[in-house]
Amino acid sequence: MRYGRLTDLMNLAVLLQGTAEGLSLADIMASFEVSRSTAERMRDALLHALPQIEELGEPGGEKRWRLQFRALGAMVLPHAGDIAMLYRAGELANRQGDTATANDLANLSDRLQAMLPAPSRTRLAPDIAALLEADGVALRPGPREIIDPETLQSLRDAVLAGVWVNADHRARGSGKLSRDVWLGPLALLMGDGRQYLVAWSEYQEDVRLFSLSGFERIDLSEEVYERAADFDLQEYLQRSFGVFQEEVQDIVWRFTPEAADEARQFQFHPTQTVEDAADGSLIVRFRAGGMLEMCWHLFRWGDRVEVLAPEGLREMLEEQLSEALHQVKSIASQHPHQKTAAQ
After folding, report:
1. Alpha carbon of 153 to those of 60, 97, 175, 200, 245: distances in Å?
2. 312/295 Cα distance (integer angstroms)
């Protein structure tokens, strides 16, 4: 048997022990991307090796299989790679300002390590340090927004419980404080840059974004918030390039032949399509709003990208570049003895 197939069988055994309702042949096919005949062979191999496997299902229904609890014993104990992934996820959560999730991941890591024999725990620390250093996550610098952990936890609790919140929130742009606003929390948008709450605003009667750093008071109510049946979070998010919500437009970018290979490694938007041009350039098309955020991203590519559509995006990009250049020249004129990029 090939080593790859043996690994698949071990992973299948772990899945069988980790499910309460059992796995069907269709589940095995989907999990391992194999044909029905291969899924049957995998099942039969485990049935032969592990008599503890239970067959579930009613006559005439779909058969399912599962392993009894603890049947695999030490086979399912975590290893250094598993613990390192939790540390990595914790570092990423911290980078995004999600300290509550980072703390939960740290607690989970501690519980998993407690399951290991003493010699394994002794070897674990240097192994994890080496894996994290190779991965580079722990050492990765960069700006991040600092969010009050209590704010984050309160909003997470509200989302999970599905209840209305009453809050005081200060708008990022205007600085205006809105008191006693009622919000129906839908999701937290965590990632690089600024963090937001997606919520139904009772006052605006629409789904809006609220910066997490703008919350000055949050009280959870006992009243259940029921999201609209036709609201699709992914569909809502895909309307934007980043987080700013505005009219969706057809976007077309052309990356130069020198940048084409690099650009091909990016997913700029879930709706994107790519086309190789005869001259070696790469044409990227998608539908989204958020023109200003597109400009911010396009700055990274310099002269290696061209906006083909829409005209408004091209004009905004030129305007942003002009304003940035004007700012640099203004600073240079105030400090003539300092060299700047504009000089």
Report:
1. 47, 12, 24, 19, 25
2. 11
Angular region, 70: left φ>0, alpha ψ -120 to 50, beta rest: left
The sheet that has 305-309: what strands, in order across it?
A: 273-276, 282-288, 249-255, 305-309
Nearest partner of 269 among 302, 234, 300, 308, judged by Cα: 234
In the three-class reduction of DSSP (H, G, I as helix; E, B as strand; rest coil), residue 295 is classed as: helix
User: Nearest-CA neighbor of 190 among 222, 159, 221?
Assistant: 159
State whether residue 188 is helix, strand or coil. strand
Separation CA 43–CA 24 (nearest Å):
10
Q: For 219-244, b where at least 16 C-beta lie within 10 A, e where not — what string?
A: ebeeeebeeeeeeeeeeebbbbbbbb
Closest CA to 64 of 28, 18, 30: 28
What's the average model confidence in pLDDT over 88-97? Answer: 75
Handedness of CA 310, 315, 316, 318 (dihedral sign): positive
Q: What gap in Å lies between CA 292 and CA 296, rounded to an integer?
A: 6
The domain 149-237 is placed in CATH, from the list 1.25.10, 1.10.40, 2.30.30, 2.40.50, at 2.30.30
Provide mean pLDDT across the span 192-213.
87
For residue range 288-334, list pLDDT tens digits in order.
998 998 999 999 999 999 999 999 999 999 999 888 888 888 887 88
Q: Which CATH class is domain 249-328?
A: alpha beta
* Whole-number Å distance between alpha carbons of 166 and 28: 46
C-alpha–C-alpha distance, residues 93 and 87, integer Å = 10
